[in-house]
Amino acid sequence: MKTIKVVAAVICDNIKEKNKIFATARGYGELKGGWEFPGGKVEPGETPQQALVREIMEELDTEIKVGEWIDTIEFDYPTFHLSMDCFWAEVTKGHLELKEAEAAKWLTRDQLDSVAWLPADITLIDKIQGYMK
Q1: Which residues contact 1 (CB under 8 A, 6 or more apart)?
Q2: Cα(12)–Cα(106) distance, integer angstroms
Q3: DSSP-assigned beta bridge partners for residue 35
């Protein structure tokens, strides 16, 4: 099975306090409409952190500061294996303009279960809730 290496940003309103996190709904592909943490594929020669900065600029026209690594999610979809490095992040410049996603929300700890997360992303929710206030 083909492995796809991606990165995801768990963008916080405040990286120290983690009151709210930013989630997007996919705007394309077979997983369209599913909620996820924004990010994308790692290009050859990039570190995961560099890929995340590039992907967030491409998808959301926003500069971020990448924080600590949270986890690496390994998940088997029907047609590929996903390996997703997840990092905390914070906006440093910009206003999160949706270029590829069809919707977005800031979610508090209690609202994390209010969206239909994609199968790989939902495996991160319990861990994130443990860090949020």
Answers
A1: 76, 79, 80, 81
A2: 9
A3: 25, 117
Q: What are phi and psi of 111, to 5 degrees?
A: -95, -5
Measured between alpha carbons, how far is 28 from 109 in angstroms, rounded to an integer? 27
The residues, any chain, with a CB within 8 Å of residue 27's CB and separated by 6 or more, are 98, 100, 101, 102
pLDDT tens, N- to C-terminus, the chain (133 residues): 999 999 999 999 999 999 999 999 999 888 899 999 999 999 999 999 999 999 999 999 999 999 999 999 999 999 999 999 999 999 999 999 999 999 999 999 999 999 999 999 999 999 999 999 8
Token pair, residue 104, equals 């977005």
